## 1
Amino acid sequence: MIAKKLAAEKAVEYIQDGMVVGLGSGSTATWAIKALGEKVNAGLHIQCVASSVASENLAKQYGISLVDFSALSDIDITIDGADEVDAQCNLIKGGGGALLREKILAYNSRQFIVVVDDSKLVHTLGKFPLPVEIVPFAAELTLKQLRNLGCETSIRQKDGKNFVTDNGNLIADCFFNQIEVPELLNINILLIPGVVEGGLFLHPKVNRVIVGHADGSLHFMKGDKKE
C-alpha cells in the first residue's frame, strides 16, 4: 500500500495550476485523487474528468472540480494505474472494468502518467488476464473469435452476474499467459466485430511510469529508458 501511495503522490507533483487533469480508476488512482484533493483544498485550481463513476464520486468527495467532456478540447495530464507493465512500458489495464474510458482519457492527454508498485512489473505481459470490453449482443460469437487468438476467455462475473461496465458493456477476461507481440495482438483484437476496446495500452502513449517500492523508494520509466 505504501508503495502505491508514494508513487501516486509523486505523480501529483506534475500537476500545475490551471491544468485539465484526467483521473484514472482503481486503488492506485484512488491515492492520486486523495493527494489531488489535498492540493485543491490548499488552493490548487484545476479541472478534472474521471474515467469511472467511482472515481468521479471520489473526486467530488474531496472537493475536486469536475467538468463535462464537451467543454474540453484535450487533457493536460492523466494519472492512472496498471495491472501489468513490461520493460517497454506496455501495459495491461482494465482489472477494474473501466478500460474503455481509461483509454479515451489516455489517448487525449498530452501526458499519460502511470503509477504502480513494483509487483506490477513483468518481463512479458500476459500473466494477468487481458480484459476486453465487448458488446452484449452475440457475446458468445465474440468470445469464440477471441479464443481463436490463442487464449482462454470468459465473461467477467460480479455477485453471481455478468459484470456490466459504466458503458453498459461486458468484460471478457482473456488468459494468454504470455503476450510476446502486444502490438500485433492489439490489432487483431480490435479487428473482431463486437469488441469495443482492449486492455493493451502500448508504450507510445505512456509518457512516464512511476514505480513505488516497499522500502519507500521510487524509480521512473519512460519509453524504453529508465531514469
## 2
Amino acid sequence: MNDHELDPTNLDALFAQARAPTPADAGAAERFLRGHRHRRSRQRARRVGWVGTLLASAAALAGLTVLRPAPELPASAAYGVYQSAWGEGW
C-alpha cells in the first residue's frame, strides 16, 4: 500500500469529520444567505419599480386618449377634388 492511499477506516473517519458542522461553516452559511437575500430583495425592488412604471405609463396614455377629443382628420386632395366637382349639396 502506498503512503498516499487511505484505508477504509481512515476514509470513514475523514468523511465523518467533513460532515460535522463547525462554527466556521455556520458563519459561511449565514454570509451566503445574507448575500442571497440582499440580491433577491434588489431584484424584487427593481421588478416592482419596472412594473409600477409600466402601469403608470399605461394609465397616463389611457387617460390622454379618453379625455382628449379625437382630432379632425384633414381631407385628402382627392376628396377635395371630388367634393368640388359635385358641389356642396351632394
